[in-house]
Amino acid sequence: MAILEVEHICKAFNRTEVLKDISFSLEKGQAVSIIGSSGSGKTTLLRCLNFLERPNKGIIRVGGETLFDAGDPSTQSEAAIRKKRLHFGLVFQSFNLFPQYTALENVMLAKELLASERPDYKARKKEIQEEIHAQAGELLDQMGLSNRTGSYPHQLSGGQQQRVAIARALALTPDILCFDEPTSALDPELTGEVLKVIKELADKKTTMIIVTHEMAFARDVADHTIFMDDGVIVEQGDPRQVFEEPKEERTKQFLSRFTQG
Amino acid sequence: MEQMMEQMPIVVHALNIGFIQTLKLFFITLIGAFPLGLVIAFGSMSKFKPLSYFTKLIVWIIRGTPLMIQLLIIYYFPGLVLHRPIWGSGESGRFLAAAVSFILNYACYFSEIYRGGIQGVPIGQEEAGLVLGMTKSQIFFKITLLQMIKRIVPPMSNEIITLVKDTSLARIIALQEIIWAGQAFMKGSYGISGAIWPLFFTAVYYLIFNGVLTVLLSRLESRLNYFR
What we know:
The structure holds 2 protein chains of 2 kinds.
Chain A: E1 4-13, E2 16-26, E3 31-35, H1 42-49, E4 57-62, E5 65-69, H2 78-84, E6 88-91, H3 103-115, H4 125-142, H5 158-170, E7 176-180, H6 188-203, E8 208-211, H7 215-221, E9 224-229, E10 232-237, H8 239-244, H9 249-260
Parallel strand pairs in A: 3-8, 3-9, 6-7, 7-8
Antiparallel strand pairs in A: 1-2, 1-4, 4-5, 9-10
Helix pairs in contact in A: 3-4, 3-5, 4-5, 5-6
Chain B: H1 2-44, H2 49-64, H3 67-81, H4 90-120, H5 123-131, H6 136-166, H7 178-187, H8 197-223
């Protein structure tokens, strides 16, 4: 069964329709890459999945559970949405690390806040905090940042900051991890280190949705590729097929700009 | 000069008493205006339009008129016009009226600084918190607040130093702060009369106190420099 099912999502800002009837699904352990030109609705789609935007129409299901149904107001209460967000993780283009916390604290903060709401928190406080601390340390180690745990974001390079942001998103063990152009804000020489850790996550069968302008990466890392244009999914399928034998004229046009360059 | 040195201990004693009243007004204003300013800031940022218009109207009136006039109206209006002297008599009544005027006035200025500080924190910070399952209040207290404080320390330092000097405006309703105490030696106080130098000498008190504040506030600013 699909871990994520997105059905007929529509989203408009005032009169501008940004998403027009988007449907796709995702299996556990799959990585999906979403490509398309700027303004095609890729980022808005990720923001809808993370409940930063509310779709006007459509349904979002995770593991068979309906998280959001535009036609059912009971799925839209603010308190419920907070918990539903935890099914998804989001890595932002601009990192959005918390500047007043160290790398390690950035990774630990949300988990600590969630843990403090547990009924057994007071009794097991020390033990729980040690667990969270150890897990955060492991994640940063996995990101190749074991020697930067005490650094503040402004002391880190863009690539290091983005890797901290990935560790921060992973700390809450989301079902689906979303990347919104994770390398677009980076200097070209720093994109490699970020793409490498995302590749490693894909190899570990992390369920991911990756919006990216790195075409080679979108082709090589993903199990499935979606090409979006003007708020619709123009074409989707196996990355090799989409990149090498695109069926749609618009996909060919879009990809030709990259192969020529 | 010799006479001045003789008068010095008496004058310093009187000015100290006045300066204590100045300090009381200064600290009470800060204690009241810090939180009230935050309430006004949230009011003016409210999505409920009538509330935000109402708070903006109040801020406009308070910032648009002289503090001296506000002091006079708040102190005299209830008693002289409405015949309901709500402030009580004597120095304590004058202090109460002065404190209310100053708190209201400074809260309005602070609110605008707070608003700038809150709105200056990038929206991505709140979104990152939301995505990590934090509540709005966790986001405010754990993420936004400190970043806001860092942003507002320099403009707030300015206002705080201005406040030290603005307390002298309370002289207009005869609050016995340091200007009043200095001026008293012109007419006659503690057996000294016709002396204008004590009034001039009050400037030293303001200068020293503001010097101390400047050091403390810049220390706070550099304490917050560990992040950007």
